[in-house]
Amino acid sequence: MNPDYSLIIHGGAGENIMLNTHVTGVIEFALQTALTLGSKVLQQGGTSLDAVQRSVEALEDCFIFNAGKGSVLNEKGKNEMEATIIDGSARRSGSVACVQRVKNPIKAARLIMEKTSHSLIVGDGAEEFLQGLEEMEKPVVPEYFLTDIRQKELMAKQSGSK
């Protein structure tokens, strides 16, 4: 039986980071996991926003994607992440930008949309503001986001090689 919904995700459109059969397999597994988790939310009667958030959280938790754990490093070697979630039927949105200690920026964006009168919060002030919301998880240490892949990319970029 076909479900009465469609859930579509993508894992980015950046450069091919050392693609080989093993890495491609990891990417495909991670994408399938994100789809499965989002689909499960819908199968259990959850909302489309719940499903989208769950799928994006799975991508943010995976080191391979340029989101959350696998975010590309800025020129100073730090992660600056952003996320936006939109509820088109209610004409509302929530966004965070330039956050560095928020484990799942999509979760923070949803809290901004649902629990505040803001549509966007940015940087250190955003992180302080989020900690005032009881639903927000504790911040993670910046080292949580560092991965070998992203550190090698940054070193290559800084040395002028690809």
TrEMBL record:
GO CC terms of this entry: cytoplasm
InterPro entries, per database record: Ntn_hydrolases_N, Peptidase_T2
Chain segments annotated as coiled-coil in the UniProt record: none
Molecular function via GO: hydrolase activity
GO BP term (any one): L-asparagine catabolic process via L-aspartate
Similarity comment: family membership: Belongs to the Ntn-hydrolase family.
Record's protein name: Uncharacterized protein
